[in-house]
Amino acid sequence: MQDSIHSICGIHGYRGHALPVHMPPATSPPATPHRQKWSDGVMERPKYLVTGGAGFIGSHLVDALLARGEPVVVLDDLSTGRMENLAGARGQDNFKFVHGSVLDASLVDELVRDCDSVMHLAAAVGVKLIVEQPLNSFTINTKGTETVIGSAHRYGRRVILASTSEIYGKNSSGPLSETSDRILGSPSIPRWSYSTAKAVDEILAELYRREYGLRSTIVRFFNTVGPRQSPAYGMVIPRFARQAVRGEPLTVYGTGEQSRCFLHVADVVEALLSLIDLPDAVGETFNIGSDEEISILDLAERIIACAESTSSVNRLSYSEAYGPGFEDMERRVPDTTKLRAFTGWQPHRNLDDVLADAVADARSEVSRQVLGLVAEGQAKGDTDSSTGQTVLAGPCPV
Ligand SMILES: NC(=O)c1ccc[n+]([C@@H]2O[C@H](COP(=O)([O-])OP(=O)(O)OC[C@H]3O[C@@H](n4cnc5c(N)ncnc54)[C@H](O)[C@@H]3O)[C@@H](O)[C@H]2O)c1
């Protein structure tokens, strides 16, 4: 698998390079990209390194950067990402894919050295993964980020760090601004370990900035949806859309009165592009999300209508869905005043656009599955190996 990816993408010779013994602290990056020889030819030095670029948000960002003519290198271990997400990017001269982990310090160091800016999106994401592999997830989400930040500091590279609205924990007041309080449950609950790992990432970036001048920007994504989002990791809209398309009942956890806001991934990418080269954004944290609030029960009804489905809605208590002790927040609404003030950004797609895309994506995946082109688990959602129950979180946004 790895060999075939490397040969498809023409990446060789990244592994086995020792870390420099000593590197000076941050220096200014060169103003213009230079040309560098690659094993498969000559290409302009990659301007952007996108970790997690084979994932949902990362792959849309890669497409947008390539469309702007920017050279891009992706580092991804394909744990939740998929090569087909990069189908549009793969044939392009300005694009390179490296199959590897952000935990591989020498690999990360070499890739960061050879780029101008890092968009760090790689993370263990989704309720299922975090609950089933809590230690591995925590390690990727802390050590992986520390590795990326350490190399960015070493070579004076700009970093945009993907964080999350989970940072705010159970704070159900709203709209939440970047300085709103974090309200968390016990650290023994895996959900809060994801929130805490991302908080550690944010703290690291901030301390490197204060002490060494790291040029970092933190973006906190609220619920993001759109094409290529897998239903297998606890995302409510892809799951509801597939259930509606199949005519199956949509399962709402809890009362269904809990509310969320969903932003189309294309608007998220526009926000990222507006921040990417903005000098004033260095040292700042931004919420990125929609302020169109909807309850999960209303969401289920809207998706059924959008899919013209005959599905019904079932309710399941949190304890039935997740076991005892599951904690969730009633509301999660972002205040994006700061992002709008810094960049002039505003979303161009509303919830109807989001749902139309989700239903179209679900239709295409379900029909490919009928033709045997997509695995059952991928189209329908994963199953807990111990209980045989479908482990898909309704309202959980991680
Ligand atoms: N989608 C959302 O609603 C949302 C909300 C809040 C925060 N985020 C954050 O946005 C980022 C992207 O999330 P996404 O929704 O696109 O999820 P995703 O799972 O589609 O993308 C994550 C990518 O990281 C890769 N990855 C995981 N571990 C890795 C490792 N050790 N080394 C290299 N690559 C690795 C995965 O293969 C995947 O391609 C993450 O940092 C996530 O925490 C997403």
UniProtKB/TrEMBL annotation:
NAD-dependent epimerase/dehydratase domain sequence ranges: 49-289
Pfam hit, one: Epimerase
Coiled coil: none
Sequence segments annotated as region (Disordered): 378-398
Family per similarity comment: Belongs to the NAD(P)-dependent epimerase/dehydratase family.
Protein name: NAD-dependent epimerase/dehydratase family protein
